[in-house]
Each structure stands twice: as structure tokens, then as C-alpha cells.
Design a protein that fits this description.
This protein is mainly β. It has no helices and eleven strands. It is globular, with a radius of gyration of 13 Å. It starts with a strand and ends with a strand.
Length: 123
């Protein structure tokens, strides 16, 4: 199995930036698509960004294109999410997740999840 641990969440004012990191362990992380998802109170979990096993393909929700960037460091088995120009609607718990045979933004296909990290954006 894959174990995932997120970090980097916090509180920031509108227009600010945060960088989230996720470390994958279990000696299988490099075979998985890795992605970031978020869930706000009262809303369904939604895909934010994902990156395939080779790092050649990335996926972004329309709401974050141009503001967020996902990257993958295979040497350290880590993915990052650089979040710029943050808006109050970005407030949510952000989760790192891994999928064995799929890559994209559908959370139903991701079988491994981190514990989540809170991102709060104030106006």
C-alpha cells in the first residue's frame, strides 16, 4: 500500500500563496497517479490537480487553472501544489491521494488518501 502525508496548510489572506506538499511512502508511490483534492463544509470532495506516474500529463480543475501548479519529485517521492492568487472559495481541507490505474480528477478512483491539511483564505 501507499501511505500519504500532507503538509503546508494554513491561513492566508485573499491573493496570497501557499505551497502544499505530500510525501508518499511504501515503496510503490512511483507507480501511482498522485493528486490533490479538496472538500469544503457542506460540499462534495472535488479534484483540484493531478499528475501521472511519469509526470508527463497534468490535470487541473477549471477553477484553479492559471493559479495552481502541481509538480512531482520522483527522487523524494513527493508532490507539491503551489497555490497562488488564493480566493476565499479555495478554503477547504486539502487531501493528497493516489490511484493505481487511473489519472484525473475523479476522487472515486483514488484508493489511498492522506489525512488532509486545512487551507483557510480570508477576504
Amino acid at each position: 500500500q501507499v501511505q500519504l502525508v500532507e503538509s503546508g496548510g494554513g491561513s492566508v489572506q485573499s491573493g496570497g500563496s501557499l505551497r502544499l506538499s505530500c510525501i508518499a511512502s511504501g515503496n510503490t508511490g512511483r507507480r501511482y497517479c498522485l493528486g490533490w483534492f479538496r472538500q469544503a463544509p457542506g460540499k462534495e470532495r472535488e479534484g483540484v490537480a493531478a499528475i501521472d506516474t511519469g509526470g508527463s500529463s497534468t490535470y487541473y480543475a477549471d477553477s484553479v487553472k492559471g493559479r495552481f501548479a502541481i509538480s512531482r519529485d520522483y527522487a523524494s517521492t513527493t508532490i507539491s501544489l503551489q497555490m497562488n492568487s488564493l480566493k476565499p472559495e479555495d478554503t477547504a481541507i486539502y487531501y493528497c491521494a493516489a490511484a493505481p490505474a487511473y489519472c484525473g480528477l475523479n476522487p472515486l478512483y483514488f484508493g489511498y488518501w492522506g489525512q488532509g491539511t486545512q487551507v483557510t483564505v480570508s477576504s
